[in-house]
Design a protein that fits this description.
Helix content of chain A: under 10%
Distance between the termini of chain A: 38 Å
Strand content of chain B: over 45%
Helix content of chain B: under 10%
Oligomer: heterodimer
Mean pLDDT of chain A: 92
Largest sheet of chain B: 7 strands, mixed
Structural class of chain A: mainly beta
Strand content of chain A: over 45%
Largest sheet of chain A: 6 strands, mixed
Radius of gyration of chain B: 13 Å
Number of strands of chain B: 11
Number of strands of chain A: 11
Structural class of chain B: mainly beta
Number of helices of chain B: 0
Low-confidence stretches of chain A: none
Order of helices and strands of chain A: EEEEEEEEEEE
Shape of chain B: globular
Low-confidence stretches of chain B: none
Shape of chain A: globular
Largest interface: A-B, 26 and 23 residues
Chain lengths: 116, 113
Amino acid sequence: DQQVKQNSPSLSVQEGRISILNCDYTNSMFDYFLWYKKYPAEGPTFLISISSIKDKNEDGRFTVFLNKSAKHLSLHIVPSQPGDSAVYFCAASAFDSGGSNYKLTFGKGTLLTVNP
Amino acid sequence: KAGVTQTPRYLIKTRGQQVTLSCSPISGHRSVSWYQQTPGQGLQFLFEYFSETQRNKGNFPGRFSGRQFSNSRSEMNVSTLELGDSALYLCASTQGFSTDTQYFGPGTRLTVL
């Protein structure tokens, strides 16, 4: 049962254009969402996050949108740069059924390629 | 501040062997989580240790185990290796709170022949 889904394994955009990476989730208990970026041979690095009480969070060229009713979040990168080419992981956090421990669940990732 | 370190970076083992991977978290971080990354499954959560105790566990067989030491360093052990265990094993550290950013190490690439 995949609770966090990134349905597009890859995305290709032109430099300067907008990149939109999508993520859907099924667990309504998720209350914190994060995006990580991963280059080959490196561990994922944190990019941006959003709490479930917000619907938008912006950090420079990166904006994350959360639509709780649709259980959908997206990452917008504007303008896209060749250095943004990487695998992007969506992650969601929730406390377990006992309410004492949280767990981070990752999607499978989307490979973004920004062409010069 | 030094980042998360993992050793070794690469390992080649044969089926049936066991392997131990090591992770040193960022200084001051008390939580260490382990993940398995494979091309088809993305990042899958193995377990989390906080203050030397396993706090969370994913859906992996008992062949996968771990521990955490008093200095927060963590080890992960896989016994009776199978071909399907070939993957990138990542550890991440946080201070231990739910909204903390996880800081990942570079990973250990395990190949099982």
